[in-house]
Amino acid sequence: MVSLVVAFAKVFFYHDPYVFERIITSTFDMSKMAVMDIALPLSGVMILWLGLMNIGEKAGAINFLSKLIRPFFSKLFPEIPKGHPAHGLLVMNFAANMLGLDNAATPMGLKAMESLHEINPNKDTASNAQIMFLALNTSGLTIIPITIMAQRSVMGAANPTDVFIPLLISTFFSTLTAILFVGIKQKLNIWNFVVLGWILGIALFISAIVYGISVIPNELAYSVSKMGGNCILFLIIMLFVGAGAIKRINVYEAFIDGAKSGFETSIRILPYLVGMLVGIGVFRASGAMDLLCDGITRLFSFFFSDTRFVDALPTAMMKPLSGSGAKAMMAEAMKTYGPDSFVARLTCLFQGAADTTFYIIALYFGSVGIKKTRYAVTAGLVADLGGVIAAIVVAYLFFG
Question: What per-residue confidence (pLDDT) applies to 10?
Fold first, then answer.
């Protein structure tokens, strides 16, 4: 509707008779791009990585991670009785999210929500534990951003993994924001030795990376970012395959089982990708996107001299509403500005620094019939904002 109004305004007030031609052309171009340039090439990369992830899962990588971080999460959910099965489900869900195992994370998350609901005295109102669980999920903490790196690969980025470390930093601050906001609201003892130790340990590690990058030349910082991301990914692959061999699982069969879901995932997102890309293309071709960005640029120009980040903000605004929409905007930005441009890289950071807040809340709370969400939406959006601010700062630090 907005695009239609802007298009007619272009015709009558700006005497632009070609605006509707650009809109129709955009619908065909975006439809072709969704299938030929994104979905088909993406399926190959997804098949590879989901196959490797399944090897890691069967080899016990998630169980190992669960044992490692269980003391930390037990302090964030004091309402859960000791030994309650919700502990294991929570840790498994977060571990799957951190490893990028979306197919495993969602059913584990639903089971975790059901388990938390069993100890919730008010069945129509979200408990403190459920809100913390949702806030951490919407913060989007991910160690291996498979989809984003795959998207950069199919769009022709010179080095698809150069956003790996910046993404890790951005998503950490998003999660930290969620923990602090919800922890303060619930009056948790977030200064507990265990919680504080984990947060400070990770923060010191991230700070060391940021400081090291800030004191070396930009060219060297860029090289370090690429090399570090590639090394970590290579070590993860070797760890998964090596652990599978040690556990004597059939690595090939495990890979095939996981790889099957890669193609299914690519096909499943195709209708959403086409719909969103066409909608975004029409929005841009009509001139509505330019008006929005110009307005935001004028607003921020009063406070900042460099407003390049504004062109990437539509992805940040879409992310809490629709993961497919944000993914489509990220792809469209890479096509418009180039996959190695500052704007394209920043959209990747926005995509990875948060999650689909409203979708997650609707899915998880809807599964157990919660009607009163209390401050869950606010917590999710605050976490998203923390990730957006961190992503902008990190983008300028790494990519200038």
Answer: 58
**Mean pLDDT for all residues in the chain:** 76
67: confidence class by pLDDT, cuts 50, 70, 90: low
* CA pair distance 109, 106, nearest whole angstrom: 5
DSSP-derived letter for residue 81 is: P
Tell me the torsion sign for CA atoms 68, 257, 268, 38: positive
CB atoms within 10 A of CB 196: 13
Please name the residue that has the structure tokens 């961190």.
390
Phi, psi of 143 (to 5 degrees): -85, -35
Cβ-contact 348, 330 below 8 angstroms: yes
pLDDT at position 53 is 72
* CA 351 – CA 344 distance, rounded (Å): 11
The pTM is what? Answer: 0.69
- Mean pLDDT across 268-278: 70
Contacts of 61 (CB under 8 A, 6+ apart): 99, 239, 240, 243
Closest CA to 254 of 49, 48, 50, 51: 51
DSSP labels for 89-123? Answer: HHHHHHHHHHTT-HHHHHHHHHHHHHHHHHT-SST
Q: What does the DSSP 8-state code read for residue 155?
A: T
Is the pLDDT confidence value at 335 over 80? yes
